[in-house]
Amino acid sequence: MSKFSKAIKIILFTTILIFGLVACGGDDEESKDAESSNSSGEISGDVTMWTASLSGEPFDSYFEDIKSDFEELHPDVNVIIEDIPQEEIEQKVLTSLTGDEVPDVINLAPRYMVNIAAQGGLMDLEDLVDDETKNTYLEGPFEAGYFEDGLYALPWYLTTTVSFYNDEHFEQAGVTETPSSIDEIYDTAKKITDETGKPSYFQIINEGDVMMNKMASLANGEPLVEDGKTVLADNEEIKKFFETTQKMYEEGIIPQENAEGTFNTAQELFMGGNLSFLETGVTFLGPIEEGAPKIYENIKADQPLSEPDAPLNVAVMNFSIPAKSNNPDAAVALAEFVTNAENQLEFSKIAETVLPSTEESLEDEYFKEPGDSPKDLARAASAEALDNAQVLFPPLENGSELREAVKNAYVKNLQGKLTPEEALQEITEKWDASFEKTGNTPTF
After folding, report:
1. C-alpha to C-alpha distance for 117 and 323, rounded to whole angstroms
2. C-alpha angle 33/38/42, rounded to 5°?
3. Residue 370: is the preceding peptide bond cis (ω within 30°)?
4. 264 CB neighbour count, 10 Å cutoff
5. Per-residue pLDDT tens for 213-238?
6. What does pLDDT average to over the chain?
7. pTM for the predicted model, two decimal places
8. Could you give the 3-state DSSP secondary structure of residue 166?
9. What is d(CA 196, CA 199) in angstroms, rounded to the nearest whole number?
C-alpha cells in the first residue's frame, strides 16, 4: 500500500469527566462487553452513531442505506443515527460522558479527538481493529487517529488544499499560469488588482490552523519545533510570506475583510466577484454553485499555491468510540463498516467535495477519469495533491493554544501592527510557553 501521513474547554466539565470515568471502570465495563454480544458471539442491541453537520439530503438517504445495510448484516442490531452540529459535537460528547446516555460511534475532527482522548473519554482501538482493516487506510490519515500510545479513531473522509481562481479575471489580466511561489502570488495578484480595480487574493486563517499548515508547507521539511522548542523565527520563506501578505494588504491587493480570515468570508467575496484566487478545500465550491452560478462557471482549479514538492496538509474526519460506550463490539463493527472502501466511495460521490481515506476507493474511475466541471477538476486536483499530502502536525493536547497564537500574530502582522519579525517572535514565545506548561516536547 502506498504511504501518505474549538471549542470551549470548561474546567468543570474536565473535572466531572475525570471523576466520572474513574467511577465507571472495572467490573462494570466487563459486564458491558459481555452484554454487547449474544451467546453465539454475534453483535446485538442498540448502537448510536453521531455524525457532524451532515443532516439533510443527500446525506439522510445515504445514512438510511448505511443503517439498513448494517442491520441486514447484523439482524440483532438496531442502528440509531443522529446528526450534531459540528461546533457542538465536542461539548455534547463531554457532557454525555458525565452520564449514562453515551453515543457509541462519533464523527470527530482530530483536534476534538485529542481533547477527549486526553481526558480518558475515548476507547483505544489498537487491539480491537485487526491489521487487515488497518492496512486498508492511507497511512497519513490513519496515523492521525493516534494520540500518545493509543489509537483513538479510524479515518473517514479527507480534504486537501487546491487553488481556485476566477478564469475571467485571469484572462482579463493576461495571466495564463497559476502561481506557485510567494513572489508569483504577489505578481499575479497585483496584475489582476491593477486590471480589475478590486482585491484579488485572500489568505484564509480560520482558527490559525490554516496558517499553521501554510507555514509548514513553506518550511518544506524544515521543522518548526524541535524537542518542544520553537525554531520558526529564522525561517526565511515563512518570514517572506508574512512580509509579502502584509504588503499586499497595505496595497489593497488583499481585502480588508481578510483580517477576519474565515472560510465563509472568502466564499462571500468570491461569490460577489470581489476575489480572484485563493487556496482551500473543495468544499469551497458548494455554496458558489448554488448561489452564484455565473461565477461558478468561471472557476478553474489547480494544484496548491506552493512549490511542487512542498508538503501539503490533509484534513481528516474520523470516527471514534467513547470509552463509556454501552455496546463497544457493535460500535467497532459499525465504524469499520462506514469507513470501508465501498461505503467511503459512495459517500465521496454523494458529497462531491471530499476524498475517501482508503486506497481502493481512490482507484475508482470516479477519481481517475473526472469530468470537466469545476467540481470535477477540483476533485481531480485534490486527489492528485494526496501525493504530497500528510498530516503536518501531530495531535497535540495544546493544539488550540498553538493555533490561537498563530492566528492572533498573523492578523496583527497583516494589519501592520507587528512586523513579520515581531509576529514570528510572538508566536515563538507563546508556543514555547505552551510547551513548557504542558510538558510536551514534540518535533514537527
Report:
1. 9
2. 95
3. no
4. 11
5. 999 999 999 999 999 999 999 899 99
6. 90
7. 0.80
8. strand
9. 8
